[in-house]
Amino acid sequence: MECHTCSPDKKQTEKSREGLERIALIGTPNVGKSVLFGLLTGKYATVSNYPGTTVEVTYGNLNIGDRRFLLVDTPGANSLIPQSEDEQVTRDILLSERPGSVVQVGDSKNLKRTLAITVQLSEMGLPVTLCLNMEDEASDRGISINIKELSNLLGVDVVSTVAPERRGLKELRAAIATGQARVPTIKVSYPERAEEYILEMSDLLPEHPPISRRALAVMLLSGDMTLRDWLTGTLEIDVVEEIEAVRSRCRREMSQPFSSVVQEAWMRTAERIVDQVMTRQRESRGSFMYRLGQATMHPVWGIPILLAVLWALYEFVGVLGADIMVGFVEETIFGEYLNPMFTYVVESFVPTDFLRSMLVGQYGIITMALTYAVGIILPITATFFIAFSVLEDSGYLPRLAIMSNRLFNIMGLSGKAVLPMVLGLGCGTMAVMTTRVLETRRDRIIATFLLALAVPCAAQLGVIMGIIGGLSGKAMAIWVGVITGLLFFTGWLASKIVRGEKSDFLLEIPPLRVPKAGNIIAKTVNRVVWYLKEAVPLFIYGTLALFFLDQINMLVVIERALSPVIVGVLDLPVEATEAFLIGFFRRDYGAAGLYALSEGGLLTPVQTMVSLVTLTLFVPCLAHFFMMIKERGMRASLIMLSIIVPTAIAVGGALNWVLRTFNIQL
Amino acid sequence: MSHVPCNPMETPSGRQGHFEDEVLESIWEMRELDGKVLYDHLKRTLEDAKAMGHKDNAERLGIMETKGLYSVEANQVRLSEAGEKRARDIIRRHRLAERLFADVLDLQNFEADACRLEHALSHESEQAICTLLGHPPRCPHGKEIPKGECCALFTRKVSPLTQRLSDTEAGKRARVMFIQGASVDRLGTMGLLPGSVVRLVQKKPAFVIEIDETTVAIDSEIAEGIYVKLV
After folding, report:
1. To probe the interface with A, which of B110, B219, B221, B224 has the most A CB atoms within 10 Å?
2. How far is the C-alpha of B96 from the C-alpha of B123, rounded, in Å?
């Protein structure tokens, strides 16, 4: 296939997309789809159990020999009749991108579920190349599949792979390269009445290649509401009404929901095929990893494991990252080498005083923004993301959700919320985006609010831990107690106030696996790069803003305006205002400001305590706030902000009062 | 076709019918709570309820007794067969209406409307609502919804040995008979379908189920809607 000549003013991405045959990559979550995407295209799409992190559609160029294709990665989908936002995106990609063929990635050990999707693809009329991944896990369990026979029965090319070892990759590329993917020849037959309705419905629908009208009819009859926009856009109003009428009639007449009828038919069909090609040697239940996996979810054994994981997390991120690495990078590399060097260079070559201070002054871009961005944030973020990727890839994260389910129930959420909440300990901005995994609006709002109020991000945490570490164990206990107490209390309160349905708790638990170092590194690099792209510009803007405010002496004015609150309510020195101000641009910035103050002996222990608690609860950083607006809308975000600010100050003030009145020593 | 107005007072049920429905409902609920229904208690409840006009109460109750909807013996009220059937029907409609408002329409204050709707539903509508909601076993307050024909139709494969997954012992293997509730589709994609054999691994801190090589965690609410037979 050749690329069309594109008009010169089109963007580069569109230019490279035009004219290439598209291949959609489809599969359930947890099958290694993203790893395969990376292997096929050379580009890594973040691998995750939870679809929330791949909702953005990823394109990659697939070049095999002289054939060129555009590979489109889709969010993991358990079914092509959407039950969730991600499944809708996947289905919509098939509708709108009109791929020439599909590469379906399936889990070898879960052949029945895999084929249930192949059946749906067959009904849609899409050409398929079937890739059965994780073959090693299947054979570990004594499962073996007759690939050749399966290929015959399905009428498509089937390749067995073990993606992390690149096993089968060559065969897969060869199969794709032929460009001869075929439509599976599986025929599903539904109960008679259902078939009649399908016929009636499909007659009303327009053609929409590459998806067959039969498949669209099945979707509509199953209650899929998401096709409505497409329908009303394409058809006359009376046809749409007739479609609705058929749908209602069907729903009334059938005692069992249509969606269940079709699902059972798919599974039965899949099972028939599986019985012909799969053999099982033994019931393998004794392996170590299996028993360890069971233990991680156990009501009794799971708890010490959970505590051990949390402790390891703290040691790795909190101590190694926040303490040791930050210390080294910030103090040694920047403090002793880079900053003095830059200062010398700037003072020698840059003409005006103005520019000089902008670069290396008190609010200098190099001395403040970059030092913080690279010196403090980077080590902490990197270690956090490494740890998080390990949790993900090992399969521990959903087990964490199980163990914390009851706890989250107190806050009116389900254990699924553990993902955004734990991510919030890394970066709140990313965490807000991940609230998408929570199905209902209510849960997303509560989670977003709690993230903004009471979950401190890693960068901030690192500095805070550093400061509190210098105080006492009691101080640490107070900080943890106040923050977590507030977290549960506001969560509980929010669950009473916020209206709407709760998400139900339904999670797939993958087997426990040893994470592959290559994956971890790739994921971490991806995430760190993403983070830096977001962070460094904001650091620079923040610094510049502060710089200018300082130049026009506005800082003093703002400080004077804010000081009644800072000094009066919180009993802090006037200089702390600056930290809070900066904290709006970057939370860690603010914490670092307090760090400087406490190092300089300007804060008493009580003041340190109060300012830390208030700062932790204080506004989310700018990037985080923008993400909130994007995900929850302006109105909701502003309401949350208007609750958070007074709450933070009130809690700080109350703490201040308690500490002073009872003369508590820290 | 333009709207044909209806006058509730002129329908066969009318005021007396409405009254009877409410009384039968109260009797059913009282019986659910205490196991028995005391006549005095019933009369007091009706007097306290603002919806009932005091004057008519005694007369209307008398009509019901004459009709044979219930009998009173030693201050205890017992429903007749006819009364039982009607009470069951009205309770079913009331609780289905509540479920409809709470689940589908997502309303918070649905009691009043559910109370009005229950009198207006025809048999066909009630079956349709029940099917739409997936034959829910309980109302939003947790009280049991009496089964209707549509539920029986849906569960005709059921044998007496069927039990809820939430009542099953951990470690047991069972065959799924049918699934009620909103998550039926998502469970299906995991392979949890009528006919599949599953193993209940544990019940705390969450229900964990194995279906072939797939492991799924669910909460007790979903588990209550999965009916299985031990194998």
Report:
1. B219
2. 12
